[in-house]
């Protein structure tokens, strides 16, 4: 594989991964669990929201690892940096009703799902490597 093609696939996987991550986290947070925050929900709703966020990361990591066609972790590094930037920027907003540790837990779950999906995509027996 030429370096130009490898770079193009990495860029393509990063852009698709960002859009899929945005799509699935929006689906979980704003459609399935709209209005569920730490202050106004019971433990079952919070658990399912956390599992939904983790599965969004899992799907995204799996998809990006299959798109790059090789053992290339750069798209997941960019996605991880985007998640960490989201935590650092939006966690201090006044409109955020959840405490800092809960948002940190959700972001850690998202990052864990992202990297577990990457590992699953690398070890997937039908991946084009």
Report on this model:
74% of the residues lie in helices and 0% in strands. Helix 2 (43-67) packs parallel to helix 4 and helix 3 (74-90) runs antiparallel to helix 4 (100-123). It is mainly α and 129 residues long. The mean pLDDT is 86. The chain starts with a helix and ends in a 6-residue tail after the last helix. It is elongated and about 50 Å long. It is built from 4 helices and no strands.
Mind sketching the topology for me?
Elements: H1 3-32, H2 43-67, H3 74-90, H4 100-123
Helix pairs in contact: 1-2, 1-3, 2-4, 3-4
N-to-C order of helices and strands: HHHH
Specify the biggest β-sheet. none
Give the CA-based shape.
elongated
Percent in strands: under 5%
List how many beta strands DSSP finds: 0
Mean pLDDT: 86
Structure described in brief:
By secondary structure, the protein is an all-alpha fold. It has helices at residues 3-32, 43-67, 74-90, 100-123. It starts with a helix and ends in a 6-residue tail after the last helix.
Search tags:
129 residues, mainly alpha
